[in-house]
Every structure is written in structure tokens, then in C-alpha cells.
Specification:
The protein has 760 residues and is α/β, with parallel strands linked by helices. Helices cover 33% and strands 21% of the residues. Helix 13 packs across helix 23, helix 15 packs across helix 18 and helix 18 packs across helix 19. The protein binds zinc ion (ZN) (2 copies).
Length: 760
């Protein structure tokens, strides 16, 4: 391609800003003895190099082959230009402009080099809680604009000292052009203040560790927001934290100092090690050890524990000083968004925290900790946020026109998409209060600007009352595409796997608005990206009292038992527990008043959970279903066999399973065994229903999605069952199966419907 000496212009696209790419190019040019320059612009990294053809070829090949750890090179293109006789190699100023296509790296856990400095008494950053370099540190949460440059971050207000400036300018240094670089002399400072805002004397980390050791609660400013911390083994402290947060039972995450400390708390299978110790540092849900020194109220009624390792230098310092794991939960009360501004945190958390461990680096975008499970050696995202966002989810099919997908109502995320990239947002939360809604609308504006997506197509859920739907309908000058909730779930699983379908889609979920205006949630679809047929579903039952039935699963027990037994409901504990209100709710069920019918799998889990006496009421979404999974005995091999096919596949499954549950309960079978048999029976029914659909359609791939598939006991049984029967099975590994993944599905469906060439 290149003969003799010459000059080429190079363009690199992908996550190449804020990850040490320019220094890397500088090194590479020196290695190949090439002259030229490199810089950032709105498209990514540009460079020109001049020298021997073979050297330039090696240089270009190495750009992706040897790229820095955090870089994701998507494309390298070159063009020959006339040589200029330039000598030396330089980094040129960033070019700003109107078109923005650069990618911003997610926030990244402290790297080994920075950790070594942190504990090196001779290093000038010894013990400095905000140290970072090109390979680690804050990114997305501090970026205010593009191109990624110090002046477009919240570090803009901290001028570099002479030492930092020298490192920043030295191509041989690890901090060469590390935008958030700082040190104790020039960077943000850490302080510990008490609940009234008065400074606490002495070393802030030392004092905070002492407070934690004494069982106090400390608010700690993290990467994406404030956390509340307290000793994980102190029941009194954890209970006080629960009371303060008004969070009755939802499990807290625990941060352990290192992998060894984590192993004291949970069993860490080999596949979980890279997830736990990797640069993204999510909370990983793992089986809790029987002897784990963790207070009971950290994760009540849960045999799993969410564990994460330190990801900011401050965490390393604090855990190192304390020497014992801490609860580290989002700094908020009940369902509010996590506090991320200092004044707001002070106001909202002062009644809970005894003190605040804070610094003056502003957080621009609040980002919650991500949560994953590990399924068959791969991540199964439960919440995709800090550490993952805003890395795009790439798909094999282009978004011909820019798309905004508004997502669902609960666990909301949105995405903007163009090219082959979908930028799925951080976890916004439940769109039920003003603050969350602002985070949603502000987030859309921020993403549209950062990734230069001016949406021409706006995709939304069919539910008319979702605030995300209402937002979409208010957008002017765009084409609106309504996407059915469970079609979006299945499409998100297709996009997650880069498979266009058609597939047999199994969407087991809480509630979603159906095409017929009823509430769906236990759906068997034949679907591709464009559309779907509903080929089966769980039999619909009333939800007595509507949303009240979501909060009170025993009402779903009423609905199922009434459907099955009518006036002859057997003598069950659940009936006795609710004796006074039972007949009223039966009447409500039968009248249909405020009792919409639903085919939801989540509500079926609710009913069984209540019948088994596990949960009559819930304090957070999915709690009854989680209790059922957590209670299922793993040594139980039996499963209920119910009618799964019939004229409409799955329609008799719910009632059949509940009947089996009741029979076993009346025969005094252990509820843990019943819970397991229920899971196995449902999985078996799903497999047989899929076989029936394969019979009639010839489709051999199955996609599994919907919030119920966060249940790995069910997921494992369904996947194993389907594979045994020769199906190819698609599960989630990049976006959550729950409503946090819905926006991706909406986006690919909307794009597919607008694609000129159906075969593309
Ligand atoms: Zn580093
Ligand atoms: Zn400095």
C-alpha cells in the first residue's frame, strides 16, 4: 500500500479519549521513528505520521493491537498525504466543533500503579484519596461537555501545580494528558465534617475509620454520588442505617477490602473473580457463606450477598485503615435518586449520617453502582450503571436515523443511538418523583449533546401513563414509534446477542401494557426486530385492587385461589392470615372493579410466595419473587408437571402450578421443596411450550427476557431444559433482562421499522 517514505493521515474511532490514547500514539511514533502529530477532535483521535512505509504500516497495525487498557478501538482509517519533511512528534491542541462522535470512557477502578503510589510513603501522592491517571479514575461522572478535555470536566477549577503540569506534558509519564490528574498540592482535598458541617480535626480517613469502627454512619462521597457507610458486622449500626434510609428490607451491598476479604463473606466461583476484581467493579451477587460475619439486617431472608471491592482510592484508604467490610449503600432515603451534590447530600443525609467524608471535586452526573449476577461464566446485568456507562452497546444493524428510546417506568434507563451504537444511559430509577424525572430529562439532553445524537425517531412504551411515554409524546418534530413492552424485552435480548431473529421469545416479567390494552407479563412471542405474534401467554387473572395487589401479594393468592377453587378454597394459612379481608377481596376479584386482569409471571410468583407464607406484603419491587427464589431448596430435584400446551400455550400453567403448590402444602411438604418444585415446573412448562411453537414455526432459537429472568434458578432450569431439547438459547449479558434493558429493545425495533431495506 505504501512505498518508500511518505506521510499518512490516520483517524481512530472508538473509546479513545481520556484513556491515554494520545500518549500511546506518541510512544508508538517514537518506537517506529516516525515524525508527526496527534490530537483529539470531536470524531476521536487524529494523527499524521511521516517516515518509512514499513514503519508506518507497523504503527497503524499497533494502534488497535496494542491500544491502552481502557481504549476500545472501533475503527482505524488512513489516507496518504504529501510529506512535509516534519521532524519530531507532538501532541496538538484539541479541536472543538459542531459534530460530536467521540466516545467517553466509563469511570474506572484505581489501577495497580496508582495503588502502589497510594501506599508508597515516598511518593508525593502517598495517601492521596483522589489520585488517578490515564488508566484509571473518574470519567463519565465528571465530564460536562465534549471533546473530553480538562476544561470540559469538573476538574477545570483546579489548575495544575508545576509537578502535575510536568507529568501532564511528559509523553514518558503515565499521567501524560490524564485530564483529571491532580495531587495533594493542586487537587481537591478531603475533609471529614460532622452532621452539622463542623470540621473534625485530624486525618479525615483516620477519623472516619475510627467512627465506623465505633458503629457510626458516615456519608462518603464516591464517584457517582454519596454512599452511606457503616460496619457490615454491626447489627445496631446497620439497623440504624435502615431506619434512617426508610428502607425496610431491600438488601444492602457490602464493600470488602480485597478479594480475600470478599471470600470471607461469600463463595466466589472462578468466573466471578474477574467480574469482582475488574476495572468496572460492580456489586456482584454471590452466595453468602454460612459463617459470614455480616449483620442479619444487611440482606434479610437472602442467601446471596451483594459484594463489591474498592474502586476509588478513598475506598482503598478507608477499608485499609478500617480492616473490616462496610455496608456501602446509596446515599438517599427510600426511592429518591442518590445524592450527588454536596449541599443536597448534606441536607438529605444529615439525619442519617454522623459525619460526611467529602471532597471538592464535583460530580456532574449521578451514577449508581452497577449490580450483576454471574450466570454460566458471563455477567447477567441487574443494574447497568457506574463503570459500564456510557460505553455504547454496539449492534450489527445500523441506526439509519438517530433514535431516542425513552425506556419504561420502573428502573428507567433511556438510550440514544446512531450508527451501530446505542448509548444506554445510567440507571435513572423509578420515574415517580420530580427529581427522578429531572434526571431523566436532563440525562437525555446530556447524552444527546455528548454523543451528538439529534433524535429523529423517538421510541416509547405503549403504556399511556408512563412518564417516559408522556415525555416522548411531547417531543415535537420527531417520528414516534410505540413499542410493546414485551416485544421490547425480546428485542433487547436480540440486540444484546447481535441476533436479528426471528426467535421464540419468552418474556417473563412484572407488568407491561399489552397490545390489547390489558396487562401482560407471561408472554410467548414469535418475534423479530420489526414485530411479533403473541403465540402463548399465562392465563390472565384479576389483580384485586390494581396497584394494591402489587404491594400486597396475598391479594394475588386470593385471585388465583378463587379462579381455581371458587367457594371451596382449602383451609390454608394464607386464608387464615387474611380472614377478615378475604371475602372482600374475593368480591373485588369477581366484580372486576379496579381489578385489571393480567398474564404477569411476576404476579404468579407473588401468589405462590404468599401461599407459602413467604411474603404477604412487599416493600420493594420483586421482593416476593426474590423470597421464593431464595427459599427454594437447591437439593430438590422434583418439579410439577402441568398442562403447558393446549390450544393456547402456557394459558393453564399458572393455575396448574398453584394447584400443585396447594396440594403439596396440604400434604405438609416443606415450603422450600415446594418453592423448588414450582420453579422446576414453570421451567418445564416453558420448555414444552417452546417445543410446541418450534413444531408449528420451525424456529429453533429462544430468547429469554423480562425481569423474572433475573432469577438464576429459573433461568438455569429453562436454559438447561431448552438446550437439552436442542434449542439455541439467547440470554442477556450486556443489558439487564429487567426494565433497565427495555430502551435498547425499543431503539432497535424503531430502527428496524424505519429501515428502508428490510433485509439489512
Ligand atoms: Zn491509575
Ligand atoms: Zn499537582
Amino acid at each position: 500500500m505504501l512505498a518508500g517514505a511518505g506521510r499518512i493521515r490516520v483517524r481512530v474511532e472508538g473509546i479513545v479519549q481520556g484513556v491515554g490514547f494520545r500518549p500511546f500514539v506518541h510512544h508508538l511514533a517514537a518506537e517506529y521513528r516516525l515524525a508527526g502529530f496527534v490530537g483529539n477532535d470531536t470524531e476521536g483521535v487524529f494523527a499524521e505520521v511521516e517516515g518509512e512505509a514499513a514503519a508506518m504500516a507497523g504503527f497503524v497495525a499497533d494502534l488497535s493491537r496494542r491500544a491502552p487498557t481502557l481504549a476500545q478501538v472501533e475503527r482505524v482509517s488512513t489516507e496518504v498525504v504529501p510529506p512535509t519533511g516534519q521532524r519530531g512528534f507532538g501532541i496538538v491542541a484539541s479541536v472543538t466543533g459542531v459534530g460530536r462522535a467521540t466516545l467517553i470512557s466509563p469511570d474506572t477502578a484505581t489501577c495497580p500503579d496508582c495503588l502502589a503510589e497510594l501506599s508508597d510513603a515516598a511518593d508525593r501522592r502517598h495517601g492521596y484519596p483522589l489520585t488517578n491517571c490515564t488508566n484509571c479514575g473518574p470519567r463519565f461522572t465528571i465530564v460536562t461537555d465534549v471533546p473530553y478535555d480538562r476544561r470540559a470536566t469538573t476538574m477545570a477549577e483546579f489548575p495544575l501545580c508545576a509537578d502535575c503540569a510536568a507529568e501532564y506534558a511528559d509523553p514518558q509519564d503515565r499521567r501524560f494528558h490524564a485530564e483529571p490528574v491532580c495531587c495533594p498540592a493542586c487537587g481537591p482535598t478531603l475533609r471529614l465534617v460532622d452532621a452539622d458541617g463542623a470540621p473534625v480535626p485530624g486525618d479525615p480517613v483516620e477519623a472516619a475509620a475510627r467512627w465506623l469502627r465505633d458503629g457510626r454512619i458516615v456519608a462518603v462521597k464516591g464517584l457517582g454520588g454519596y454512599h452511606l457507610a457503616t460496619r457490615a458486622d454491626d447489627e445496631q449500626a446497620v439497623s440504624a442505617l435502615r431506619a434512617g434510609k426508610r428502607r425496610e428490607e431491600k438488601p444492602f451491598a457490602v464493600m470488602a477490602g480485597d478479594l480475600g476479604a470478599a471470600r470471607v463473606l461469600v463463595d466466589v466461583p472462578p468466573a466471578a473473580v474477574p467480574v469482582l476484581t475488574g476495572a468496572r467493579r460492580p456489586v456482584v451477587l454471590l452466595p453468602r457463606r454460612a459463617d459470614a460475619p455480616v449483620a442479619a439486617s444487611v440482606a434479610p431472608d437472602n442467601r446471596d450477598l451483594g459484594v463489591m471491592l474498592p474502586y476509588a482510592p478513598l475506598h482503598h484508604l478507608l477499608l485499609g485503615r478500617l480492616g473490616t467490610p462496610i455496608v456501602l449503600t446509596s446515599g438517599n432515603t427510600s426511592d429518591e435518586p442518590i445524592a450527588h451534590r454536596d449541599d443536597d447530600a448534606r441536607e438529605r443525609l444529615a439525619h442519617i449520617a454522623d459525619g460526611f467524608l467529602v471532597h471538592d471535586r464535583r460530580i456532574h452526573v449521578r451514577t449508581d453502582d452497577s449490580v450483576v449476577r454471574v450466570f454460566r461464566g458471563r455477567e447477567l446485568p441487574v443494574r447497568r450503571s457506574r463503570g459500564y456507562v456510557p460505553a455504547p452497546v454496539t449492534v450489527p444493524w445500523p441506526f439509519d436515523r438517530p433514535v431516542l428510546a425513552c425506556g419504561a417506568e420502573l428502573k428507567n434507563t433511556f438510550c440514544v443511538a446512531k450508527g451501530r451504537r446505542a448509548f444506554v444511559s445510567h440507571h435513572i430509577g423509578d420515574l415517580e418523583n420530580y427529581e427522578t424525572l429531572c434526571a431523566f430529562t436532563d440525562g437525555i439532553e446530556h447524552f444527546s449533546r455528548l454523543f451528538d445524537v439529534r433524535p429523529e425517531i423517538v421510541a416509547h412504551d405503549l403504556h399511556p401513563e408512563y412518564l417516559s411515554t408522556k415525555y416522548a409524546l411531547r417531543r415535537a418534530d420527531v417520528e414516534l414509534v410505540g413499542v410493546q413492552h414485551h416485544h421490547a424485552h425480546i428485542a433487547s435480548c436480540l440486540a444484546d446477542n447481535g441476533d436479528p431473529g426471528p426467535v421464540i421469545g419468552v418474556a417473563l416479567d412484572g407488568l407491561g401494557f399489552g397490545s390489547d390494552g390489558t396487562l401482560w407479563g407471561g408472554e410467548l412471542l414469535v418475534a423479530d426486530l420489526r414485530g411479533f405474534d403473541r403465540v402463548g401467554h399465562l392465563g390472565a387473572v384479576p389483580m384485586p385492587g390494581g396497584v394494591a395487589a402489587v404491594r400486597e401479594p396475598w391479594r394475588m393468592a386470593v385471585a388465583y385461589l378463587d379462579e381455581i377453587y371458587g367457594d371451596a378454597v382449602p383451609d390454608l394459612a394464607v386464608v387464615r392470615r387474611h380472614e377478615r379481608r378475604w371475602s372482600t377481596v374475593v368480591a373485588l376479584t369477581r366484580s372486576g372493579t379496579n381489578s385489571p386482569r393480567t398474564s404477569s409471571a411476576g404476579r404468579l410468583f407473588d401468589a405462590v410466595s404468599a401461599i407459602l407464607g413467604l411474603r404477604d406484603r412487599v416493600t420493594y419491587e420483586g421482593q416476593a419473587a426474590i423470597a421464593l427464589e431464595q427459599r427454594a431448596r437447591l437439593d430438590e430435584r422434583g418439579g410439577y408437571r402441568v398442562e403447558a400446551v393446549g390450544p393456547v400455550p402456557l394459558v393453564d400453567v399458572g393455575r396448574g402450578l398453584v394447584r400443585c403448590v396447594v396440594d403439596d402444602l396440604l400434604a405438609d411438604v416443606d415450603p422450600g421443596r415446594i418453592a423448588a418444585r414450582f420453579h422446576h415446573g414453570l421451567a418445564d412448562a416453558v420448555v414444552r411450550a417452546a417445543e410446541a411453537v418450534r413444531e408449528s414455526t420451525g424456529l429453533t432459537s429462544v430468547a429469554l427476557s423480562g425481569g423474572v429472568f433475573q432469577n438464576v434458578l429459573l433461568l438455569d432450569r429453562v436454559v438447561c431444559g431448552l438446550e437439552t431439547k436442542g434449542f439455541r438459547v439467547l440470554v442477556h449479558s450486556r443489558v439487564p433482562p429487567n426494565d433497565g434493558g427495555v430502551c435498547l429493545g425499543q431503539a432497535v425495533v424503531a430502527a428496524a421499522r424505519h429501515r428502508a431495506d428490510p433485509a439489512a
